[in-house]
Amino acid sequence: MTQLVWFREDLRTDDQRALVAAVAVADAAGEAVHAVWCATPAQWDAHGMGDNRRGFLLDNVLQLQAALAEAGIVLHVVDAGDFAGSVRAVLDIARANGAGAVHYNEEYPLNEQRRDASFDAACAAAGIVGCRHHDGMLVPPRAVLTKAGTPYTVFTPYRQAWYRELAADGGIAPMAFRAPRQRADAAALAAAGARAQQVIAELRARLQVPESVRAAWPAGEHEAQRRLAGFADEALRDYKARRDLPAEPGTSVLSPYLAAGVLSPRRALAVARAANRGDFAEGNAGVVTWISELAWRDFYRQVVFHHPHVSMGRAFRRETDRVAWRRDQRDFDAWCRGETGIPLVDAAMRQLVATGWMHNRLRMVTAMYLSKDLLIDWRLGEAFFARHLVDWDFAANNGGWQWSASTGTDAAPYFRLFNPVRQGERFDPDGAFVRRWLPALAAVPERWVHAPWLAAEKHADLFAGGPSFAPPLIDHERAKARVLAAFRAAASTAA
Ligand SMILES: Cc1cc2nc3c(=O)[nH]c(=O)nc-3n(C[C@H](O)[C@H](O)[C@H](O)COP(=O)(O)OP(=O)(O)OC[C@H]3O[C@@H](n4cnc5c(N)ncnc54)[C@H](O)[C@@H]3O)c2cc1C
After folding, report:
1. Is residue 475 part of a domain?
2. 248: helix, coil or strand?
3. Distances (CA, A) of 140 to 35, 105, 492
4. Which of 153, 173, 198 represents a domain boundary (last residue)?
5. Which residues form ligand 1's pocket by a CB distance below 6 Å?
6. Which domain holds residue 456?
7. pTM above 0.85?
8. pLDDT tens digits, 460-494
């Protein structure tokens, strides 16, 4: 008999709960451990996952394969098509390798929940034990509920309850990986390794990932841990002061590793707490604020788990599905290409396309600009982000978009609109960030750098012979009146 581990978006050996459990059972029973990972390209298509993220997953699977082989564990890599195919493929591998149990970590969006329910049923029918583990959140979604037993929909009280769970310390200590006693033989390891390389090369050949993106995000858990340690040493304690400044390296840039499970959230929490004498809710403001971001990550995952309609393309606040979004392809294309005329929005969109990542402040600014200033359906922006983000994570992306568009839980109220020029002046005061991505702004004086069309109108002499700066797609005050009217109309038809 063997124990089988089904890897998903938990591509690491460190503190991987399903893997730890499988090794413990196997060692106690004198069994070997096998592992499986299924590519599901048809499912990724259905979910809108872009090539950047697919490429990152594939690179990480290869790293994982090597790490598991070193520990004597065979990783079977299969192209299963979609989730239904993955259920069949894992069962086939379980049978072929005499697995008594399949260990896997739960995932929370709707299709993943459905896949796991059908897998559990298929296991029961086949006489195999399906062992579901909790791994991808610091606190599982069923553990943080209001006194009435309902899920939280507002972040601050959620975080208070979340802190109480952390204080109870139920399973948040990371677990180190230990290789199983029984190793697979060298020939089996080599054959599975060659097969994995082949499957991944075939999948990779279908992707178009810019070299700039691949170079920015080296795969592997060593890289993730190195980045975590570097961030803890250099920027964590100043995080609160610097996290909103896109020109500075003030945030951890760990999101691709956390989203693909290459880094354990418990490991991230443990490193942060160690820099704050073990505290998470008080002490150094930088550390406390950063841990609070990990709470946002859990918060949006539990939203997805408890409110499956958000996984079906629906607004969390159902009445906001009546907003009459504009269908304006020209404006949408200008937003995608970083040609709205607003430097902060355009620079951010270019950062996204060139690197597969965007600074958090700018995700909020660009998302609000699309959904509020341009009054274009947030779902189009959500899909564009999914196509480009290396860190694409359904729950965080959907939560962030619905927050920005005022359609979600705990969302920005609809009458709250960022003024994108003011955001630039506040968070990129000397224009270092916008100049990095928009070279035409190089010589524009600081006071005009976030609204160069004004300078071009008033001081044509300054720009003679230089680049021209057209006014933005829409005047912010006019846009504000338009979006407020649209939200009010939606509320009155719902009433
Ligand atoms: C419109 C929009 C879309 C977003 N899409 C995604 C996405 O697809 N994937 C993603 O991981 N994050 C997303 N975020 C959240 C956030 O912008 C990124 O997690 C963050 O910018 C990643 O950079 P970092 O690793 O340096 O974060 P840090 O500031 O160092 O934060 C540490 C970690 O906390 C988590 N985190 C931080 N902020 C949030 C948040 N608001 N919601 C959920 N988790 C958070 C991330 O895992 C992040 O790596 C989105 C936010 C918005 C407003």
Report:
1. yes
2. coil
3. 24, 11, 38
4. 198
5. 243, 251-255, 258-259, 293-294, 296-297, 300, 360, 363-364, 367, 385, 389, 391-393, 396-397, 399-401, 404
6. 318-494
7. yes
8. 776 666 677 888 999 999 999 999 999 999 988 86
